[in-house]
Amino acid sequence: MEEREITITDEKWRAVISNDASYDGRFFYAVKTTGIFCRPSCKSKPPKQENIRMFRTADQALSAGFRPCKRCKPTGVRLPDEEWLATVTEYIDAHYQDRLSLDVLADVCHGSPYHLHRTFKRIKGITPIEYIQQKRINQAIRLLITSARPITEIGQDVGLPNLPYFTTLFKKRTGMTPARYRQSMRSDKEVFLNDTSR
């Protein structure tokens, strides 16, 4: 039986970081952090070596659960937009605390910023940046309700370290500042507990 994964040699790694088209068809590399696989010639931002796996064929990369790159089309077929956006949203969900921008997401998910913005808005109904903000505010709400941690710490934890911006964005999405929201949730909880203790 043919071995599915192949060893990463210096020669193959050099082919990846130099986008050497002469290696196309000889192997494919997959990026563990994004779940995408590419041809050696792919012009996407080079991944870290420790985050890649190499396969002899595109079918082997597919069998291992990786999706074909939208930019270099390693299977010769374009990845459906819905599958591509699943990769993007999975990445955001796992990295919402990081500094994320349209350019960063496009690099990570192997597409152009313009195409990513347009496709995301068409399929999800919101832009990638709005999705990131929504994710961050939802996580902030969870932390405000379940912990007594300072609001500045919560902002940092959800990727919004600038307190005035965090407060403005939070108020825009919920109608209240983070402090008022926390106070409101505590008041509601006390009312509920008093009602049930009768």
TrEMBL record:
Annotated GO biological process: DNA alkylation repair; methylation
Pfam family, one: HTH_18
Keyword Transcription regulation: yes
InterPro entries: Ada-like_dom_sf (IPR035451), Ada_DNA_repair_Zn-bd (IPR004026), Homeodomain-like_sf (IPR009057), HTH_AraC (IPR018060), HTH_AraC-typ_CS (IPR018062), Me-P-triester_DNA_alkyl-Trfase (IPR016220), Tscrpt_reg_AraC-type_HTH (IPR020449)
Keywords of the record: Activator, DNA damage, DNA repair, DNA-binding, Metal-binding, Methyltransferase, Transcription, Transcription regulation, Transferase, Zinc
Limits of the HTH araC/xylS-type domain: 86-184
The protein, known as: Methylphosphotriester-DNA--protein-cysteine methyltransferase family protein
Cofactor(s) of this protein: Zn(2+)
Keyword Nucleotidyltransferase part of the UniProt annotation: no
Range of residues in the leader sequence: none
PANTHER family linked: ARAC-FAMILY TRANSCRIPTIONAL REGULATOR, HTH-TYPE TRANSCRIPTIONAL ACTIVATOR RHAS
Top-rank taxon, per record: Bacteria
